[in-house]
TrEMBL record:
Its EC number is 2.7.9.1. It catalyses: pyruvate + phosphate + ATP = phosphoenolpyruvate + AMP + diphosphate + H(+). This is Pyruvate, phosphate dikinase. Gene3D superfamilies: 1.20.80.30, ATP-grasp fold, A domain, ATP-grasp fold, B domain, Phosphoenolpyruvate-binding domains, Phosphohistidine domain, Pyruvate Phosphate Dikinase, domain 2. The keyword Flavoprotein does not apply. It comes from the Bacteria. Belongs to the PEP-utilizing enzyme family. PANTHER family: PHOSPHOENOLPYRUVATE DIKINASE-RELATED (PTHR22931), PYRUVATE, PHOSPHATE DIKINASE 1, CHLOROPLASTIC (PTHR22931:SF9). The keyword Magnesium applies. Residues 417-499 form the PEP-utilising enzyme mobile domain.
Length: 889
C-alpha cells in the first residue's frame, strides 16, 4: 500500500486521503505556486496506527524514499552538520480542526547542525532561536512536557536581560535558553533531547498521529460532528524561515473579509517570526496592508497569488505564508471558514462574478447559518456604557457575566448562568469554555487569532484584539481605558458585528433578515442591505428548486400569520390541547368529572363554540392553505390538579374539619386517573375512544368553522389528524364518527365542507402496520418526537437532563436523537412506513411534524425518503425552506 505521497502527486480532491492541508499543498504545487517541497503521509497510515498502536511496517521505508527525494531536490541532507535540511511536521485532517492537533517545526536541528545553520544563514541568533523553538515544541508535543516549564525558563532569561520581547535576546542569551530547555527535557523525561534527526522526525510523526485523540480534538470533533475514526494526515515540508531577520516574516490572510464578505486585503503579518507566533497571538501583528510598505515585491506576488487561488477554488480562501529574505512561500491554503452573513454575501458575489451559479450558491450556505442571522441584535442606546471597541471577529450579540477562565465558564454555564469568556488570548485549551460561553472577548490577536477562527467556526459571538482592555486573569478582572474595572460576575455585552464592548446589558432587537421575512423590509428597497438582498436571492432560488413543501406548527392565529409571512405553505400541526388551558381549564375539569351524560354534554356544548372561534381565526390566517388540526392528545390528568398538591389540601382541610364534597370528588377522580407512565397511557386516540363526545365535539367545531369561512367567501382547507394510532381499528372507529359529523354539518350549513382525515405515525406498531392503516387514512404525518421516544424507549421529558450528557460523552450518539433524527433507527422505521403506506395507497400524502422538521440534517433525510412536506416552528420555516432546497440539489 502507498502510504506516502509527494506534494506533486496529489490534488485538492484527495482530502480524505491526504487531509485538507496535504491536498491543498499538492494543488498549489501543481498550480506552480511557490510551495516548499515536501510529502504527505496518508490518513490511512494514521488509521492503521490508531488501530494497531504502531505504524504500518513498510511506512518507514516509504518515508526514507520520499525523504531521499526531498533531500536531492533541496541539495541538502536532513540535519546535516554543515548545511542541514530542516522540515516541519504538521497535522492535517480531512475536516478542518484549527489548532486542535500538533505541529513541530525545525526538525533536524541538534547541537551540531545548529552551527551549520548559523553558518549558512549568516546568523547565529536565528539558528539558536530556531533550535530553542524545536526543543520547546518537541518537548510539549512529542515528549508531553507541560509547556509552562519552557515559558517560565524563557521569561526568566528575558527578566535577567531586563526585557519583555524575544527580539531583544541575542545569540548568547538564546544559547542559554537552549541549555535550560535541554535541562528541562532531561528533568521531566529522564532522557536527553534526541540528537538524531531521523529519530526526531519519526517521533514527531507519531506524536501527530497521537494528537488525533487529544482531549481538545475529541471535544472539537464531537461538537462539529466529525467522525472519530477519520484520522489525520502528516505533512513533512522543507522549512522556510520567517525568523531570519526583518526582511522575513510570516502571516495569514483571507481573500475576502470572513466577517462581512467585503472584498479587500484582510490578514495579519508579523516580521521576523515563525507561524505559531501569529496564530497564538503572542506578539502583536500588523495589518496585512502594511506589508506593501515593508516589502512591495513580496506583497505584489502575494496579492496575485491570492486572486489566482480565489478564481481557482471559486471561493474565499484563507492562507498561511512566510517570507524568507524577501521571497514569498505559500505554506497552506484552504477554503476559509466565514461568518454566517459573509457566507450569504460571498455566495451571491461569486455568482455575480460568474464564478458559480445559483445552485452552487444555495449549496454554499446552510440552515444553521441562516438561523444565526435570525438571532436578535443589540439596539444602540440604553443605559449600558460602552467600554471600548475591539475587532468584530464573529458576528452576534452576546450578554453575560464576565468570567476569566475556561473552567469558570463551564462551571457557571452548568449552573445555568450566561457568561462571556474574557481572556488576553485563547488557545486550544479554552475550547470547552468557548463552547459554554455566550461569547468570547480577547484583548489580543487579530481576526485570524485562535479565538476568532474557532468562534466563527462555532457561530459564536467574538470580539478580539480589544487592546485597550487590560485583562488580568489572575485577579479575575479587566480595566477599561476610562478606569472602569470589570470583575468576575459583572454583566457585559459584546457585539461581534461592530466589535463594541459595554458594561451592563444592552437591549436587543430583531435583525434585518427577520424584518425582511416579516415583510417590513422589501428586498429591492433602499432599506435592504447586501445581506438582505443575498438572503432573498438565495431563498428564492431554494424555493424554486425544492420538492418538499414547508409547513408550520402553530396553534394561534398570530403564529399562523407570522409563519405564513416566513413562507409556510400551511399548518402541519395545530395542537389543540393548547386551546384547553387558561380559563377553559375549568370547563375541561367539569367534562372530566361529569357523572352523567347530561353533565358531560353541557360541558362539551360550552367548549364547542370556543373551539370553533379558535379554528375560524386560524383558517382565516391560513386561507387557501392546508391546515392540519390534531385532535386532543395529552392525558386528561394534565388538565386536573396535581395529585400530591391535592392530597395535601384535602389532609389540611380535614384537620381543620372543613372538608367539602367537591374537593373530595376531585381527589377521587385524580386518584382514579393517576398513571405511572402517562406518556404511555390514556392519551391520543385512546382518549377519543374512551371519552364519549370529545373528538366529535372537536370535529364539529372544525366543520362549523370551515363552513362559516366558506360562506364568507374564504377557502378553508382543514385536515383532521388523529394522534397516537397503533391499529387501523382505532382510526376506523374515530373516522366513522367524524365522517358522520362532517356530513351532518354540511347538511345543516348547506355547504360542502372539504376535510380530509389522517393519522400521525408515532408508535412502532403504526409503522409496521402502515399498509393497513393507510386504508383508513388520507394522510400520514410522522410524529418523530413520540416515534423517537417509543423507538428508543426514552422518556422524552426526562432523559435529556437525566443521562444524555453521559451518552454524548461516551459517543453513543453525537447529538440528541430528539434534536436531529436518528436516521439508522427511527429513520429506518419512517422508510418502512413510507413504503408500506404508499404500497397500499399510492399517492398517500406524507409529512412530518415532530421537532425534527426544522433540523437541517433531518430535512435532507425527509427529502430523500420522499415525504411531501416538513412542518416546523415559525422561526425555523426559512431554515427548512433553505435546507429543502439544498437537499434537492
Ligand atoms: C410528535 O410526537 O412528534 C408530535 C409532533 O406530537 P407531540 O410533540 O405533540 O407529541
Ligand atoms: Mg406526539
Amino acid at each position: 500500500q502507498k502510504w506516502v505521497y509527494d506534494f506533486s502527486e496529489g490534488s485538492k480532491d484527495q482530502k480524505d486521503l491526504l487531509g485538507g492541508k496535504g491536498a491543498n499543498l499538492a494543488e498549489m504545487t501543481n498550480l506552480g505556486l511557490p510551495v516548499p517541497p515536501g510529502f504527505t503521509i496518508t490518513t490511512d497510515a494514521c488509521r492503521y496506527y490508531l488501530e494497531h498502536g504502531s505504524t504500518p511496517p513498510d511506512l518507514e521505508a516509504q518515508v526514507s524514499e520520499h525523504l531521499a527525494a526531498l533531500e536531492k531536490a533541496m541539495g541538502k541532507t536532513l540535519g546535516d552538520p554543515a548545511d542541514p535540511l530542516l522540515v516541519s511536521v504538521r497535522s492535517g485532517a480531512a475536516a478542518s480542526m484549527p489548532g486542535m492537533m500538533e505541529t513541530v517545526l525545525n526538525v533536524g536541528l541538534n547541537d551540531e547542525s545548529v552551527e551549520g545553520l548559523a553558518e549558512q544563514a549568516g546568523s547565529e541568533r536565528f539558528a539558536w532561536d530556531s533550535y530553542r523553538r524545536l526543543i520547546q515544541m518537541f518537548g510539549k508535543t512529542v515528549l508531553d512536557i507541560d509547556g509552562e516549564h519552557f515559558e517560565h525558563a524563557l521569561d526568566e532569561v528575558k527578566r535577567e536581560q531586563g526585557t519583555e520581547s524575544d527580539l531583544d535576546l541575542d545569540e548568547e542569551h538564546l544559547k542559554d535558553v537552549v541549555g535550560r530547555f535541554k535541562a528541562i527535557v532531561r528533568e521531566q523525561t529522564g532522557a536527553d533531547f534526541p540528537m538524531d534527526p531521523r529519530e526526531q522526525m519519526d517521533l514527531a510523526i507519531n506524536a501527530v498521529f497521537d494528537s488525533w485523540n487529544s482531549e481538545r480534538a475529541i471535544i472539537y470533533r464531537r461538537r462539529e460532528r466529525i467522525p472519530s475514526d477519520a484520522g489525520t494526515a502528516v505533512n513533512i515540508c522543507s522549512m522556510v524561515f520567517g525568523n531570519l531577520g526583518m526582511d522575513s516574516g510570516t502571516g495569514v490572510a483571507f481573500t475576502r473579509d470572513p466577517g462581512s464578505g467585503a472584498q479587500g486585503v484582510y490578514g495579519d503579518y508579523l516580521q521576523n517570526a515563525q507561524g505559531e507566533d501569529v496564530v497564538a497571538g503572542i506578539r502583536n501583528t500588523v495589518p496585512l496592508a502594511d506589508l506593501e510598505n515593508i516589502d512591495q515585491g513580496a506583497y505584489g506576488e502575494l496579492m496575485e497569488t491570492m486572486s489566482r487561488l480565489e478564481s481557482h477554488y471559486r471561493d474565499l480562501c484563507d492562507i498561511e505564508f512566510t517570507i524568507e529574505r524577501n521571497k514569498l512561500w505559500m505554506l497552506q491554503t484552504r477554503v476559509g471558514k466565514r461568518g454566517a452573513a459573509a457566507a450569504f454575501i460571498i455566495a451571491t458575489q461569486l455568482v455575480d462574478e460568474g464564478l458559480i451559479d445559483m445552485d452552487e450558491a444555495v449549496r454554499r450556505v446552510s440552515g444553521d447559518q441562516l438561523a444565526q442571522l435570525m438571532f436578535p441584535r443589540f439596539v444602540e442606546g440604553g443605559d449600558a456604557t460602552q467600554l471600548t471597541e475591539g475587532m468584530n471577529a464573529s458576528p452576534g450579540a452576546a450578554v453575560g457575566k464576565a468570567v476569566f477562565s475556561s473552567e469558570e465558564a463551564v462551571k457557571w454555564a452548568d449552573r445555568g448562568e450566561k457568561v462571556v469568556l474574557v481572556r488576553r488570548e485563547t488557545n486550544p485549551d479554552d475550547l470547552s469554555g468557548m463552547i459554554a460561553a455566550e461569547g468570547v472577548l480577547t484583548s489580543r490577536g487579530g481576526k485570524t487569532s485562535h479565538a476568532a477562527v474557532v468562534a466563527r467556526g462555532m457561530g459564536k459571538t467574538c470580539v478580539c484584539g480589544a487592546e485597550e482592555l487590560q485583562v488580568d486573569t489572575k485577579k479575575k478582572q479587566f480595566r477599561a481605558p476610562d478606569g472602569t474595572v470589570v470583575n468576575e460576575g459583572d454583566v457585559i455585552s459584546i457585539d461581534g458585528s461592530t466589535g463594541r464592548v459595554w458594561l451592563g446589558e444592552v437591549p436587543v432587537e430583531a435583525p434585518a433578515v427577520v424584518r425582511y421575512f416579516e415583510g417590513e423590509i422589501a428586498p429591492d428597497s433602499d432599506e435592504a442591505d447586501d445581506l438582505v438582498r443575498s438572503v432573498h436571492r438565495i431563498l428564492t432560488h431554494a424555493d424554486e428548486v425544492r420538492r418538499l413543501d414547508v409547513r408550520t406548527n402553530a396553534d394561534t392565529p398570530e403564529d399562523s400569520a407570522r409563519a405564513r409571512r416566513f413562507g409556510a405553505q400551511g399548518i402541519g400541526l395545530c395542537r389543540t390541547e393548547h386551546m384547553f388551558l387558561g380559563e377553559r381549564r375549568q370547563l375541561v375539569e367539569t367534562l372530566i368529572l361529569a357523572e352523567s351524560e347530561d353533565e358531560r354534554n353541557a360541558a362539551l356544548d360550552q367548549l364547542e363554540p370556543l373551539q370553533r372561534q379558535d379554528f375560524l381565526e386560524i383558517f382565516e390566517a391560513m386561507d387557501g392553505l392546508p391546515t392540519t388540526i390534531r385532535l386532543l392528545d395529552p392525558p386528561l390528568h394534565e388538565f386536573l390538579p396535581d395529585l400530591t398538591d391535592l392530597s395535601v389540601r384535602v389532609a389540611v382541610a380535614e384537620e381543620r374539619g372543613e372538608q367539602d364534597e367537591g374537593t373530595l370528588r376531585l381527589l377521587a377522580a385524580v386518584q382514579a386517573m393517576h398513571e405511572q407512565n402517562p406518556m404511555l397511557g390514556l392519551r391520543g386516540v385512546r382518549l377519543g375512544l374512551v371519552v364519549p363526545g370529545l373528538f366529535t365535539m372537536q370535529v364539529r367545531a372544525i366543520a362549523e368553522a370551515a363552513a362559516e369561512r366558506k360562506k364568507a367567501g374564504g377557502d378553508p382547507r382543514p385536515e383532521i389528524m388523529i394522534p397516537l394510532v397503533g391499529a387501523v381499528q382505532e382510526l376506523e372507529a374515530i373516522r366513522e364518527e367524524a365522517e358522520k359529523v362532517l356530513a351532518d354539518v354540511a347538511e345543516k350549513e348547506g355547504v360542502d365542507v372539504p376535510a380530509t382525515i389522517g393519522t400521525m405515525i408515532e408508535v412502532p406498531r403504526a409503522v409496521l402496520t402502515a399498509d393497513e392503516i393507510a386504508g383508513a387514512a388520507d394522510f400520514f404525518s410522522f410524529g418523530t418526537n413520540d416515534l423517537t421516544q417509543m423507538t428508543w424507549g426514552f422518556s422524552r421529558d426526562d432523559v435529556e437532563a437525566a443521562f444524555f450528557h453521559a451518552y454524548l460523552d461516551k459517543g453513543i450518539f453525537g447529538i440528541s436523537p430528539f434534536e436531529s433524527l436518528d436516521i439508522p433507527g427511527v429513520g429506518a422505521l419512517i422508510k418502512i412506513a413510507v413504503e408500506r403506506g404508499r404500497g397500499a395507497r399510492p399517492g398517500l400524502k406524507l409529512g412530518i411534524c415532530g421537532e425534527h422538521g426544522g433540523d437541517p440534517d433531518s430535512v435532507h433525510f425527509f427529502h430523500e425518503v420522499g415525504l411531501d412536506y416538513v412542518s416546523c416552528s415559525p422561526f425555523r420555516v426559512p431554515v427548512a425552506r433553505l435546507e429543502a432546497g439544498r437537499a434537492a440539489l
